[in-house]
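Recap from last week: sequence in, structure out.
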Amino acid sequence: MTKTDGDVFGRLDGRVVLVTGAASGIGAASVRLFRAVGAEVVGVDLVAGEGIVQADVSDPAQVAEVVDAVASRHGRLDVVHGNAGVNVPGRPHSLTDADYRKVMGVCCDANFYLVRSAVGHMRAHGGVFVFTSSMCGVAATPRSPVYNMAKHALIGLAQSVAVDYGAQGIRAVALVTGPTHTGMVDELWPPGPLRDSLAATTSAGRLAAPEEQARAAVFAALPGSSFLTGCALTVDGGATAGWNEMARTMLTLKAV
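Predicted structure tokens:
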């Protein structure tokens, strides 16, 4: 990026960013890249780690406590990247109430709690919410009904934030992420025919690196993206163009 390009998009010097799901994958990359553009970044994850605030983001009380603590310690809160995610694969008839609550709690409810807790700290000076949705938020993948529901909901949440808080200078963007090489993908899509079918849906024939998704999160939050709000920002390497074909391929293969 040239100096001119940097001036166009701006930086986040002096801004405070909160990232959930920060211990690995897209979240860990997001922490690094937000720091690279000058932000003070606080990472949150269920898994303890160096520089990570440990919290269960599906618990509204814990979310409120973390958000208030960050705003109090740093004097402000400017950007929230709601990135925590989990999936329990299976068809609706095979999933338990506990499975449903686990996935919705982390992937959907947590982001609502983040908005509810953080907007009060943003109204005076504006702010940005970035939610890691998925191409599952625009077209369902087999055997992931609750995950599909949750990721669809994040696009609606981004739209709602834009409508309800736009007058206070608060923006929201949902990232429609494509196939990305993360720990969750390694667990649910081990190397083999299913992984190959996933990678083959992108124009490059590969999975994205977590940094490629994190760059989109940073882009959405930069001052130069000030008119970007209430939308789904697709970062899927062209995967949704072949999503239906991939779904048919998956259904012919042995899957979890």
